[in-house]
Amino acid sequence: MWSHDVPAWLGYVEPFSTLAAVLVAGVVYGHQLADARSRRRAVDARVQTHAFFAFRTIVSWFADPRRKTAATSREFVAVMRPHFGAVEQDLRRMADVLPGASRAIATAGWRALALFSRATLLIEAEAVKPGGSEPTLADAVRDIDACGDALGKIVDPELRGLWLQGARGEVEPT
Length: 174
Hints:
It is built from 7 helices and no strands.
């Protein structure tokens, strides 16, 4: 047969070729994992960007001097209600990329979205009624505040801290 024509040392090559194939597969898998982590970090960064803009707007509502002078939640809602669209737009952009985000960021993002949706639903239902429920509006305002807290957990802590210092006038403009 032809096996007599094959040199004996060739029998030793087969285990090494199998090992080489396993090593190449391991390298390819490692690159795929690194690529997936890189994509996840990019998605997290996009979520954090949209979360920051929504967070900034919500925090500014509660820092607004009109909030401090508003005697009721109804008065606060009347002043801030026209600006809900801007936050909703940022939250929609955030929701578009949340499925690819890391678990912690996605969880906080969906929570923020649910809180804001519930709050605006309550506000829209109560604000149109002449004698809308003040406790319901107060609950909605608390939901908006909790939404801001959830968004704050998404935003990069250093950026959040710098912005909050600037909002309080603690940072000198450059």
